Amino acid sequence: MLFIKGLLFSALLIYAAVSDIKRREVDDWLCVAVLIVSLIGTGGYFWGAVITALPFFIPALIKSGSIGGGDIKLMFVCGAVLGVWGGLAQMVISLFLAGLYGFIILLRKGYRAYKETQIPLAPFLCAGGIASFYIINMGGMLF
After folding, report:
1. What is the predicted pLDDT for the residue at 81?
2. In which domain, by residue range, is 45 found?
3. How many structural domains comprise the chain?
């Protein structure tokens, strides 16, 4: 059951990443599908969803346009799948990757281009979510 959950979760997140790159949008139906995946096996994690989404929701309330609603919803449903610790791991991995990407843009194109570049966040959130799922759930099998 865990294998099926991981496969569905990964496939949906890959679709979300591609969708955000192409259209700068994460579909609502996709978030609902990930939420349904959270019910497979051990069930969803309410607190994981809340704690994972909150650090993204608060900046969106403070500064309009800082973080998209699709990114917040995506983090919420990923937290439902991953739980509190998996969601926190996802945040660390995702934000590290996004920061690294931003740093590379800064080095290659300069400060002005860096300031004007809008980076789609979902691909990094999805990469962090997939990595977290397999680290949290399959870590013992990998080492």
Report:
1. 94
2. 2-142
3. 1
